[in-house]
Amino acid sequence: MKKIYVTDLLRNENYTEVEIYGWVQNQRSHKNIIFLDICDSTGSIQAFVEKSFSTELFDFAKSLKVESAVCAKGLIIKDNNKVSLSLKSVELIGCVLNKLSPQPRSNFDVFNEAITSHVLDYRHIYLRNPKIMAVLKFRDILMHHMRQWFYENRFTSVDAPILTPVPLYEDGSALKINIHGENVFLTQCVGYYLEAAVHAFERVYNMGPSFRGEESRSKRHLMEYWHIKAEMAWGNLEDIISMVENIIKYLTQKCFPDSHEIMQTLGKKMCLDGLKTPFPRITYDCAIKVLQTKGFAIEYGKSLGSAEEAELSNDFNGPFWITGIPRTIEPFPYVIDKKNPKITRVADLIASNGYGELLGVAEKIHTLDMLDERLHDKGKFGDPRFDFVREVHQIGCVPHVAFGMGVERLIRWLIDIPHVRDAIAFPRIFKRKISP
User: Do 160 and 95 lie in a common domain?
Assistant: First the structure.
């Protein structure tokens, strides 16, 4: 079992002679000395061997290909703050039979659109790239702090099913599969199941995959993505807006100190706009009028797209809410506004800097009569697939609120990366083969 990592050596701990397992990241030859940059999951250390020490070891080190997996033994050399490894032996653990260009661990722009297809074709190898690793490390940090927030605020994790008889939106918007002759869907949203669970635990959440059937080529859509969903009993729209603002601020505060090295690797600065709570608000109606004055051909009752959201973000110095979204746009489980029955008690949070919608919050219907009205609106009333949803509303259903946030969208905004595909290990993209 591996006991020493590169980061242990670089921290100047009291090592003298060590054995390190890793990969050859780079190789350089200078007359009678060979330099090998040996890396592992934590960093890279320069190792070297002089020809005068051992011609055999020198020749072997010179023959090693980049990406070779090795076990290197040697003496730690400390020169001021620089730590290196004077090699005494090198064992080849995993050889290199194929070569990729650019080299996976080399310093190239892995986000460059010109090589995107190639990087995605060999995603299973390019996961070794330091920039991709940095993004995925940030994702791990973010998910850890998100779970911690839920734990600290008395939420119970509920693992909802991926296979479901009903999508959140129309059937054509979901991915359909057939199991034993029964048509079912890959989940778009776990809301129906959290709605059932919230009447047991009062505060529930789920972090898991969701699937989209509608094709989109935007920078914030994937076929398979991860959702952070939560529901809370006895709440209203103001409660869920306040809670989400608390979450965004918490995640920004917690992730920032944990991600200095990550941001250095990416050559970016983490977005701190999430600290500017409370976030300002604009009504959907007002947003439409603003966009029309700016030349956008958009009418009331239409969903805002990436371009519209980006334009609106120019008027705000941070994230902002769009409230009062029409009932014609939103799915049926959300409450109709009593003061204006044309709109729902729903709000979308739009990211700063043109990154678009991050998440949505809503008051969910708790009375059977309003639920049936909305089912009628959407042409779903009488569909037996929704019987279990109606049954929840017939036995002690209480006012409850919910939010749903795309993990990749949040990551993209916080660390300023070009596309949501860059925020997940193995992206599933429309019009692209499911591979690797």
Answer: no
